[in-house]
Design brief:
Helix content: 25-40%
Shape: globular
Radius of gyration: 18 Å
Largest sheet: 5 strands, antiparallel
Structural class: alpha+beta
CATH superfamily: Gcn5-related N-acetyltransferase (GNAT)
Length: 164
């Protein structure tokens, strides 16, 4: 039983190391879509031309992936949809707001002019991020069938976030 557990642990470690090396190779082979002094954003799946992309968020200059942003056009009446996630240990540093700002031009390039972002009504940190990105509540949860709040961001009128 112990031998099986050790072997399983070694296999898991090996796959983790393969994922890490593949991530480093990806970073070496590709340029980031956008960068600032803290973050690099890479297209990991999909394409801007197809208006559907998965973007990895990395600490600037190193291969530490800390989260992702998903952009989908034609999701809500041609408005587009933004989904995101950030590893727990990197929350609270405004990395997601920075990532959304870095992807603003990419969203417009993907014809996402008014992205929709949904969030659970009790997720205050995410709500603050959305609002600081220019999000306006257009449909609150109803406590019955709709369990999330829906925000819209007008990228054509909100050139910069409200708070930097």
């Amino acid at each position: 039983m112990d031998n099986e557990r050790e072997l399983s642990d070694k296999i898991h470690q090996t796959f983790h190391e393969i994922d890490r090396v593949c991530g480093e190779i990806h970073l070496l082979e590709n340029n980031p879509i956008a960068s600032n002094e803290k973050l690099d954003i890479y297209l990991e799946a999909g394409s801007i031309e197809e208006e559907n992309g998965e973007f990895g968020i990395y600490l600037h200059g190193i291969s530490t992936r800390i989260g992702c942003v998903s952009l989908r056009s034609n999701f809500y009446k041609l408005l587009g949809n933004v989904g995101y996630g950030l590893d727990e240990e990197y929350r609270g540093h405004r990395f997601m707001l920075q990532s959304l700002e870095l992807l603003r031009k990419t969203m417009i390039q993907m014809k996402i002019y008014k992205p929709i972002i949904t969030v659970e009504s009790d997720n205050e940190p995410s709500i603050h991020t959305i609002q600081n990105f220019g999000g306006v509540l257009i449909q609150p949860h109803d406590g019955k069938e709709i369990w999330y709040d829906t925000y819209e961001v007008d990228l054509m009128t909100n050139k910069t976030s409200k708070k930097k």
